[in-house]
Structure formats: structure tokens, C-alpha cells
Please model this.
Amino acid sequence: MAPRILICATIVWAQEDVQKLLGGISEIMYMDSPDRASFLEACRPGGRYDGVVGIYRENESAREIGTFDKELINGLPLSVKWIAHNGAGYDPVDVHACIKRGKRIYLSNTPGAVDDATATTALYLLLSTMRQYSLAERSLRQLEWKPAGINESAHDLTHKTLAILGLGGIGSRLAELARAFPMRIIYHSRKPAASAPRYCEYFTNVEEMLKQADVLSVHVPLRKDTEGLVSDKWIRTLRRGAIIINTARGKVIDEEAMIKALEDGHLGSVGLDVYPNEPNVNPRLMEFPNVTLLPHMGTENQDTQRIMEVRALTNLRDFLLTGMGKDLVIEYKGQQAKVRQLQFL
Model:
């Protein structure tokens, strides 16, 4: 009997790849549960999803069954060994509940697949906030031509200093793009990035880095230890008039401290693609004409989304064929995690 794979989402761009990657080695099922209660009921012994060994999920599935929190993880069939999350950020899945469950569940994400799209989103926010393009466009659409005094708040990017918090795939790609202006690139991560080009200057002390930044771009994952990481202290360490760009997760920044810094002029602007309570946006942010706000557009294009779908599906295929997907998330690293290869493949 072929192992069962449950697709908990609508595959939009890689429909043919589902069969190419998984059709010959698994029984593919599609979630048809209209809500969380019916999903959990179908996961019980003897239910429709009983016997599933791998799950594909993406954030859209939360509309029907909610996030993969501790309750849902513990309610999955005991046969589940792998969850392939479509997305680089995987905070909608309680990875610690996956690890602590009696029969451990492994979790993969899609790093790399989102780098270009998210970095170009950050670049747009960088350009828009520095040059005040969003404000100018809104003025033009209101038939008012240029806003008075816009030149007093706008800056060129050339030779300004861009500080990147987290030089992973997305941060590295943004550094490459911003270098073309050229901007000076400085960064802080848990340790120096081995692949960082020579023009990226590493700072061990994050506050020393912030003191030199004209723009801070945030690229760290959301975890318990990163919630509110960009605090009031860090924001106030930035130069007066500095700009913050966030394409990571809204909760990484202390939103109240950020808004207060906009109100008193310590921050010159912010460019946001993410918010703490999406899709809800703090209405106070709408009061600042000088900020640029996007509705989480980071990966909203068909090219990137297809790559992401294929990469998540490939993690499931690798798990079925070898017992391990290539994109196991960092919480499992260093544990010598091993999944017994399914004997019937």
C-alpha cells in the first residue's frame, strides 16, 4: 500500500508537479474539511485522514482549519511524520509541539525560494521611504501634483548606510541589490555569514551597528526569542530621522515603540509589508503620510509562488524516498535527526 500524503491547500501554480513528484510513490489526498472540528475528527483512528504520513500546508489553509498550533499538531494521526510548510517563515506551525509529540513530526520550509521576491519588496520599500514615492503618487492621484516640502524629507540612496538585521538568503539578496546604488552595507547576525561578500561589514554589537544606520532592514524569523526584538531601546539607538524596513514578521518589532518614534520624529519613515495581527493593520499607521505600507506582498507573484509550491512538494518527495527532506527547519539541526525510511518504497 502506497504511503498517504494529505494536501491541505489549493495548489495554484504547480498542479502538474503534484503528480510528477508524488503521483508514482504515494496516494495523494486533498483536504475537504470545511472547518477545524471536522478536520480533527477526520484525523481520529478510522477517520478519512488516518494513515497519512506526510502533509503539505500553506497559510491559506488557516481559513478553514486554523494554524497548526499545539492542539492541531496533537490531534494529527500518529502516522504523520512530516509536515512540508510552503513558506520561509514557519511560525504558523508550532514546531515545538511537533518535536515534543510522542511520535515526533518533522517540519520543513522553503528557504531560498522566497529570497528574490522578498528582497525586491524590501528594495521597493527602501526606495519609496527614502524618496517618498508613495506619498508623491497619492498626491498625484488626488490631482495635487507634488506635496509641498517633499524634498525636505526625501533622500538619495547613494552612499547612505543600510543596516541589515539577519544576513540570511533574503538579507543577502537585498544587500546585493542595494550595493548597486551604491549603499554601504553593514549587518548583524548571530555569527558572521560565511558567504557574505567583502562589502558587507559585520557588527558583533548590534547597537553599534544601529548607531551608524540610515536605514534598518529587518530579516529575522519570528520565534519566542525574537518577538519584540527591535525594541524601543534599539529604535532610539538609531540616528534621528532613520528609516525601518520590515519584510520579516510584524511581531519582531515593538509596534507601539515604533509608532511613538514616528510621532516624535525620531524615525523619519517606515516601510512595512508585515504586521503583528494580519490582516488587521493598526489604524494609527494610516495617520503618517510619510510611511509606505503594503499588504504582505512579499511573495505575491506567480513565479515565486510556483517555485515555493514545488520546493515544498519536493521536501515531501525526498522524505518518502530517503526518509529526510532537504529543508528541515533549524530547530532540528544538530540533533542528528533521523527518520526511518519507509520500507515499502
About this structure: The first strand starts at residue 4 and ends at 8. Residues 114-293 form a domain with the Rossmann fold fold (CATH 3.40.50.720). The chain has two domains: 4-109+302-340, 114-293. The longest helix spans residues 302-322.
